[in-house]
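User: Predict Triacylglycerol lipase's structure from this.
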Amino acid sequence: MAVLIMMKLPGTYSPNSLILLRFMLLLVLSYRTNALVKLPPNVTIPALIAFGDSIMDTGNNNNIKTIVKCNFPPYGQDFEGGIPTGRFCNGKNPSDLIVEELGIKELLPAYLDPNLKPSDLSTGVCFASGASGYDPLTPKIVSVISMGDQLKMFKEYIVKLKGVVGENRANFILANTLFLIVAGSDDLANTYFTIRTRQLHYDVPAYADLMVKGASDFIKGNI
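Assistant:
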């Protein structure tokens, strides 16, 4: 279950919120149909921030102690230079494709990339971690970055961003950034149906409610 959500920080809502949400859904549809994507008039998206699991992860798992890694062949065989980058695919992943389609930059760097430059912060980064999920147990099973810890890194990112571009510019960027969250598949495929620990206490509808609560808590910053 992939969940695409646009979120805003408390106090940073802009009149473009609903427009951006519709546009994000248009992007997803356009990607699947190879349609041409055009920005709505007068809409500026300066950055993209991604959270979630392996669908979005652009290399964060490379730099943590976990068995869930993909920084080796044949991953990356279609990436520039055929280099495995920590993306769980053969080339660019959806977060890269969206940030490129928006004209922001070609690739969305991982926040934990040791080669991340201060200048990268102003156009967005990726906090996603392969095998993470809304269920708190999901990231613990394989020692990856939980959604809560991704949110903590995002708060750290805000401080760094303000240090690079100043508070006024940082506030503008955050108010107009597209936030992309994709998670849930590992909760169902791994935690619920493979490990089955949760099946002792949750049927499928109850587990879905647990995931919805996790997503809601993330959006509200209550993780």
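The helical segments are 17-33, 94-101, 137-142, 147-165, 167-176, 185-195, 204-220.
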